[in-house]
Amino acid sequence: MLFLSTPLFSRSNPADFYVQELAVIPGKEEACHEKIDKICSYHRKLHPMSGEAQQQQTTFVQKTVTTAYKVSCLTQYKALAWRSSLITQREPLLTTVRLGQGIVRRMIEDD
Questions:
Q1: 39 neighbors 3 (Cβ within 8 angstroms)
Q2: DSSP assignment of 73-99, as one string?
Q3: What are the tens digits of pLDDT across the range 52-81?
Q4: Which domain holds residue 21?
Q5: How far apart (Å, rounded) are the C-alpha atoms in residues 18 and 37?
Q6: By C-alpha distance, which of 41, 23, 44 is closest to 32?
């Protein structure tokens, strides 16, 4: 994590951290691509691949994607529900506040 520009905080989701670090920001595409190349080359130096793994990577890159989604809508919904439940378990106070806000908002709208 020391190589990347921002630290990984203990309470943040590592997946979100990596998505933000590897995202291409509109208007800053060139700088983002340079940053991604720098991160990838650093990773390749730390973890060199064997010949077989390199061949598998090359084969994977050459395949084309024919469909927009590789899993069904139900599978995506299950993954979303699972992630939501993890956030709820990690931040129970936030869930309680949101529930309270919804109840108060509904009471105000009914009057």
A1: yes
A2: HHHHHHHHHHHHHHHHHH-HHHHHHHH
A3: 665 555 544 445 556 677 788 899 999 999
A4: 14-62
A5: 14
A6: 23
CA 40 to chain centre: 17
- Token pair for residue 3? 């190589």
Q: Is residue 4 included in any domain, yes or no?
A: no
Q: Does residue 55 share a domain with residue 18?
A: yes
**Domain tally, the chain:** 2
- Secondary-structure percent of the chain, ordered helix, strand, coil, rounded to 5: 70, 0, 30
Is the pTM higher than 0.90? The answer reads no
- The answer on 56 and 18 residing in a single domain is yes
- Residue 79 CA to residue 61 CA, distance in Å, equals 26
Q: Supply the mean pLDDT for the chain.
A: 78
3-class secondary-structure state, position 48: coil
Q: Angle 92-110/73-90 helices, nearest 10 degrees?
A: 100
- Ramachandran assignment for 27, one of left (phi > 0), alpha (psi -120 to 50 degrees), beta (any other): left
